[in-house]
Specification:
single chain; mainly alpha; 3 helices
C-alpha cells in the first residue's frame, strides 16, 4: 500500500513539473510570436522577422530537451535521418 501511494505521489509531482515546464515554454514561444508580429508588421522586411523569429523560437524551446540528452529525442532524430549526438 505504501509503495503504491509513493508511486502515485511521484507520478503527480512529475506531471505537475512537466505541466509547468510546458506552460513556461509555451509562454516563451507564443510571447515571442506576439513580439515578432508587432515588429514584423512595422518592418520593411517582415519575412525576415517572421522567419528569423521562427528559427529562434523553435531553437529556444527545443534546446532544453536537447541539452538533457533525452534518449527519446535522440531516437526520433536518428529515425528521421539526423545523426545522434
Amino acid at each position: 500500500m505504501h509503495e503504491t501511494a509513493a508511486l502515485v505521489l511521484v507520478f503527480v509531482l512529475v506531471f505537475v513539473l512537466v505541466f509547468v515546464a510546458g506552460l513556461v515554454l509555451g509562454a516563451i514561444f507564443f510571447g515571442g510570436l506576439w513580439w515578432t508580429i508587432g515588429k514584423g508588421v512595422a518592418s520593411d522586411r517582415p519575412a525576415l522577422w517572421f522567419f528569423g523569429s521562427l528559427l529562434a523560437r523553435t531553437r529556444g524551446t527545443m534546446q532544453p530537451a536537447r541539452q538533457r540528452g533525452s534518449r527519446r529525442m535522440s531516437a526520433h532524430s536518428s529515425r528521421a535521418g539526423y545523426p545522434r549526438n
